[in-house]
Amino acid sequence: MSQRHALMIDDNRIWIRHRGRVFGPFDYEWSPDFCGAEFHYSGQKFGEYCSVDEIYVDAKDLGLPRAVSEVAVLVIGSLICGVLAGEVLAERIDRINQCLSRYGFCRFLPVEMHQP
Known about the structure:
The protein is an alpha+beta fold. The protein is built from 2 helices and 7 strands; from the N terminus they run ββββββααβ. It has a 7-stranded mixed β-sheet with strand order 6-5-4-3-2-1-7. The mean pLDDT is 90.
């Protein structure tokens, strides 16, 4: 793992190290009907998951590097899809690995399972 780039997960909280700087926590909160979720960065809402085909994100006011917001959305979306598919943690991590690799974010792998 690179000292400059990493992805750290603790329960549903996520931290992203990009160019040596740590951003987070990112997390998500399920809607009461468990059919959607809100994305948060340090307690501030920046997006929501409505369905596999509907994910809305507006991170411009957060001042995050583009790569950080892209990785955060990919990871949160992967976790939510994994939970909805009934996957165990190892399967969700595999889903994250595949997704980040597919979109060119291998430098953030492997996933670390703890708080920074």
